[in-house]
Design goal:
The structure holds 2 protein chains of 2 kinds.
Chain A: H1 2-9, H2 19-48, H3 53-74, H4 81-101, E1 103-105, E2 108-114, E3 117-119, H5 121-139, H6 147-165, H7 169-186, H8 191-210, H9 212-222, H10 231-243, H11 268-300, H12 305-329, H13 347-365
Antiparallel strand pairs in A: 1-2, 2-3
Helix pairs in contact in A: 2-3, 2-11, 3-13, 4-5, 4-6, 5-6, 5-7, 5-12, 5-13, 6-7, 7-12, 8-9, 10-11, 11-12, 11-13, 12-13
Chain B: H1 2-7, H2 18-53, H3 55-66, E1 67-72, E2 79-80, E3 86-98, H4 106-117, H5 121-129, E4 135-142, H6 143-151, E5 157-166, H7 174-177, H8 189-193, H9 195-198, E6 203-208, E7 222-224, E8 231-234, H10 238-254, E9 259-265, E10 272-278, H11 291-294, H12 300-311, H13 314-317, H14 327-337, E11 345-348, E12 351-354, E13 357-360, E14 368-371, H15 372-378, H16 381-402, H17 429-436, H18 445-456, E15 467-471, E16 477-480, H19 492-508, E17 522-529, E18 538-546, E19 553-560, H20 568-586, H21 593-598
Parallel strand pairs in B: 2-8
Antiparallel strand pairs in B: 1-6, 2-3, 3-4, 3-5, 6-7, 8-15, 9-10, 9-19, 11-14, 12-13, 15-16, 17-18, 18-19
The chains are: A mainly alpha, B alpha+beta.
């Protein structure tokens, strides 16, 4: 199926924009802004006496992001090859800076304030890692075959994982996920990955048992009703459950009225469920799914390994982030703060996501350039 | 997979890897995608589980979280007298409060509230300017004032309507009616006894609020209408009550008594027409003590004691030594048992020796020779001691039981006291002798009157009561209240004899000051000394009924600690006479002209 349908697309004109991907991204952005407004209006009114407070900021960031996307999609993605390593180094510097002079919000030190604008280096780090790994792997003298060459690649990203992970475990997990996927795609064989997977499980188990509060998270995950810290999770479940098949209607969410704390952030999907119901939630998931499918095609038809790896990295990034977000909101996994791409509130996030989409569009343009 | 290989031709990066590597890459991206797809499908399944199968579970909990319940008070039912006069009513009152955050024109709000509520501007300013979510400015404001404040349409000013219990006659029958607390529940009296009929069922408004508890405007509210309480119709008669109260107050003042209790009941069915316990208290201000008492209320406990005392209904809750009025019961038992006949003759030397005791008659010089009728008319103690001794303990207690003298009357008022009588096994001759003329035991006034009623009405034990029927708002009867009766506690013959003798007591004996020409009043006087005897405090009482041949009304007058003359026949009988002469014509009791003419001379 997959390759049959993709064959038809080979009739596209050379250098033509992947309109389907473009439209899907725009759909995500527009739906995101609408739902963000619905979800954040109450919090904006209560905290800033302006129900459009969050929307305005997000709209501003989205506009810049769309400009980025356009510019990036217009140039050949090979243009970025020479920036791949510097970008990675920059992300390391910025992440280190956050630890030193970052500003806190909601108890997490994740922002750098520059000239009145706050900036989240972790979001930049994700793009930087994708670009860096794609460049590194595609330019490596030897193919990544052995377990050692794989570990070498993994070690390359460990500094950024460690820096980001210090105060933003969720993003570190995503970066790690991106790296694993990219190495997996680039190297032949499977056995090593099974070993890596097992090592990962052991690592997670040790990681959890070292600190008491991580185990507590697990307990909360099993029984959110019984723990005070399960409040956010429970409120999210209330919102989702209230939605039913068709939801309470757009703008009608009760849970966004302060019950789900900071509903416009990580938990926005629960409010989407409440207002639009299972029906609306599945439509959003389908849009994400179609977008992931476009990344797959882009990777598939990429002209070279660099392009293939960029598309794979983006596919991994989007896939992991969407899955983790929905899994957290539905209490399928323990709570960890992960935003829903394009929809959750966050200026830096949407800006770099759109730039990343520009990269994906750029790669997709370059296919079948025979 | 074959197709995949074909499409390989179009695959770009030959430079770095060659066919094998290209194929590997494509396959692996596909695997990644497949895994993602698999997880997404799983998560959709999880969503279906949450949003379809757990929807009710979580939705219900969420709704409970969002809804705030506000009660709507149910209007309490009225209490009415037998003529439909309202004794306890509801008044619409308003609570005026301000919501600081919603006030637009603060000065105007202060100005209007000061003007309309007639309160001190400083005080109102202080409350209006206070930064709080809601501040109550005034409670129990008349509805007309509330409406006027509302007509200004000031934002931030909230006017809530509410009901307040209101007693149109202030202190009338205060200890019978009782009053309600702030939660609209009865605290004493009929308000407690009939609370379940009167209170109704409060309604609810369920409103949605945000997490801060602030109501959401324009949200659909669920409403459960309150069920108003039903009305209770009583046997009380405002006119009789008023008249009796007047008479009671008169004698209270004249004799500087501690208190006076009088009640009027029907011996036929136990309906109580009036029950007065002076001094009464104002039901609209039940927590205000009288001037003399408030001086004694040194602390809150002392105040509560005084309030409880003020609210107490002595006719029902207090016991006393009945004295000679109890001789009616001894007489009925003696006649019924046949140990004494009206024609039996006795001789009273002024005392009687029982075992080793010499028990005095109230007439120290003695009544001399007398038949039983005369002995009753004279209220001669030695004769009643003789009747008691003739009956013996077993018979005496048999009749007490038969008359249902022990225990409570089961009147429809809370806090009724039981009879305090000697244990049968402890009763010797001396005890039996004193019981015979109404001493050495305690009984409530209502128990005495009820037992006498049952003796003179032909032998039917009745339950004294106020409540007659329960009606809804539109006056339709919801329930007719029924009370227990017991027939044949005494023969009709004995009953008639007792009535006849007691009429003579009033016509010619100790009770003659209760005589009302033309109405055949029967009755018995009593003068009892309270415990301790050394205090020299007395209770003067008179129990009377009319007409003697077919008793329709029974009155019991009890004067506590009168100053000066304290004989029941002298001070209590005239009170009954005054009441009878007014209420008998009012109640439409037949007037016997013949009798009135024949005995015209004896009326005072």
């Amino acid at each position: 199926m997959l390759f049959k349908s993709s064959k038809k697309q080979t009739t596209y004109r050379k250098n033509q924009l992947d309109y389907i991907m473009f439209v899907l991204v725009l759909l995500c952005v527009i739906l995101g802004l609408i739902m963000l407004y619905s979800t954040s209006a109450y919090n904006g009114r209560v905290k800033f006496s302006d129900s459009a407070y969050y929307l305005k900021k997000q709209f501003f960031a989205t506009s810049i992001g769309l400009l980025f996307m356009y510019l990036v999609s217009e140039c050949d993605y090979h243009f970025w090859e020479k920036f791949a390593f510097p970008a990675y180094v920059l992300s390391l510097i910025l992440s280190a800076l956050v630890l030193a002079v970052g500003s806190s919000f909601n108890g997490s030190k994740r922002w750098l304030s520059i000239a009145g604008l706050s900036f989240q280096p972790a979001e930049f780090a994700k793009v930087a890692v994708i670009l860096f790994l794609a460049w590194y792997i595609s330019h490596a003298k030897k193919k990544i075959v052995g377990i050692f060459s794989m570990l070498k690649v993994m070690l390359m990203v460990m500094p950024i994982v460690a820096l980001v992970g210090t105060n933003n475990l969720s993003t570190a997990i995503i970066i790690l996920g991106i790296a694993v996927v990219m190495v997996f795609v680039a190297s032949p064989g499977y056995k090593q990955f099974i070993i890596i997977g097992l090592v990962g499980v052991v690592f997670v188990a040790i990681f959890l048992s070292v600190e008491q509060y991580r185990l507590e998270r697990l307990m909360i995950w099993r029984n959110p009703e019984k723990y005070e810290k399960g409040y956010q999770t429970l409120q999210g479940l209330f919102a989702i459950g209230s939605g039913g098949l068709f939801g309470t209607g757009f703008g009608e969410s009760m849970q966004k009225l302060g019950f789900v704390p900071e509903a416009q952030n990580d938990m926005i999907f629960s409010i989407i469920c409440e207002e639009l119901g299972l029906f609306g939630a599945v439509i959003i998931i389908i849009i994400f799914f179609l977008l992931l499918y476009r990344f797959l095609l882009t990777a598939h038809y990429a002209k070279d390994l660099f392009g293939n790896l960029i598309a794979s990295g983006i596919l991994a990034h989007m896939g992991v982030q969407v899955i983790l977000n929905i899994a957290v909101v539905t209490n399928t996994i323990p709570n960890t703060g992960i935003t829903l791409p394009f929809i959750s509130y966050g200026g830096t996030s949407v800006m770099f996501l759109l730039a990343e989409m520009g990269l994906a569009l750029s790669v997709s343009r370059s296919r079948h350039m025979q | 997979m074959k197709k995949e290989i074909k499409s390989d031709r179009e695959y770009g990066f030959i430079k770095e890897g060659g066919r094998k590597n290209k194929k590997n890459n494509k396959k692996k991206v596909l695997i990644v995608f497949a895994v993602i797809m698999f997880i997404i499908v799983f998560l959709v399944g999880r969503l279906v589980f949450l949003m379809v199968f757990s929807s009710e579970y979580y939705g219900k909990q969420a709704k409970e979280l969002h809804q705030r319940e506000r009660n709507i008070k149910a209007a309490r039912g009225k209490i009415l007298d037998c003529k439909g006069n309202i004794l306890a009513d509801n008044k619409s009152v308003c609570t005026i409060s301000v919501i600081h955050s919603q006030i637009e024109d603060q000065e105007k709000v202060i100005e209007v509230l000061t003007k309309e509520l007639g309160k001190d501007e400083e005080e109102i300013r202080k409350r209006v300017e206070k930064v709080s979510s809601i501040e109550i400015i005034a409670k129990n404001i008349d509805k007309s004032v509330g409406d006027k404040v509302r007509s200004y349409g000031l934002s931030g000013v909230k006017i809530d309507e509410d009901y307040k219990r209101y007693y149109p006659y202030d202190s009338l029958a205060s200890k019978v009616l009782g009053f309600t607390g702030s939660d609209n529940q009865g605290i004493i009296g009929l308000e407690v006894e009939y609370d379940k009929y009167l209170s109704g069922k409060p309604g609810k408004i369920l409103t949605l609020t945000d997490a801060r508890g602030i109501e959401i405007e324009d949200s659909a509210e669920e409403r459960e209408e309150p069920e108003n309480g039903n009305d209770v119709y009583t046997s009380l008669d405002v006119n009789v009550q008023k008249y009796v109260e007047q008479a009671a107050n008169k004698v209270l003042e004249k004799k500087s008594a501690d208190s006076v209790s009088i009640f009027v009941m029907s011996p036929k069915n136990g309906e109580i027409l009036a029950m007065v316990n002076t001094p009464e208290f104002n039901l609209n201000e039940p927590y205000t003590l009288s001037a003399s008492d408030s001086a004694l209320a040194v602390d809150s406990a002392a105040k509560q004691d005084l309030l409880n005392k003020m609210w107490r209904n002595p006719c029902v809750s207090n016991t006393y030594e009945p004295g000679s009025t109890f001789k009616i019961i001894t007489m009925a038992a003696g006649l019924e048992e046949g140990v004494v006949k009206l024609s039996d003759t006795f001789s009273c030397p002024g005392y009687k020796i029982v075992d080793d005791r010499r028990i005095k008659c109230h007439k120290v010089t003695g009544h001399g020779a007398e038949d039983f009728t005369l002995a009753v008319m004279n209220s001669c103690n030695p004769v009643f001691i003789e009747v008691g001794l003739r009956l013996g303990v077993d018979n005496m207690y048999k009749y007490f039981n038969q008359f249902q003298l022990f225990g409570k009357t089961n009147v429809d008022l809370p806090g009724e006291a039981s009879t305090i009588m000697h244990k049968k096994e402890n009763v010797g001759n001396v005890e039996l002798a004193t019981v015979s003329f109404g001493q050495s035991f305690q009984i409530t006034p209502l128990q005495l009157a009820t037992t006498v009623s049952s003796i003179i009405n032909g032998g039917k034990r009745i339950t004294p009561h106020f409540g007659v029927k329960i009606c809804d708002k539109d006056g339709n009867t919801v329930e007719k209240l029924e009370y227990k009766t017991k027939d044949n506690i005494i023969s009709e013959e004995t009953s008639a004899t007792v009535r006849q003798v007691l009429e003579k007591v009033v016509a010619e004996g100790t009770g003659k000051k209760a005589y009302v020409a033309g109405f055949h009043v029967g009755g018995k006087t009593a003068t009892s000394q309270t415990l301790p005897r050394s205090a020299n405090k007395y209770i003067a009482s008179f129990l009377g009924f009319a007409p003697a041949h077919d008793p329709q009304v029974l009155v019991l007058v009890i004067i506590n600690n009168p100053q000066g003359i304290y004989y029941g026949g002298t001070i209590a009988a005239p009170v009954a006479q005054e009441i009878f002469s007014n209420i008998l014509p009012y109640l439409g009791i037949d007037y016997d002209e013949e009798e009135a003419a024949s005995s015209g001379g004896t009326t005072e």
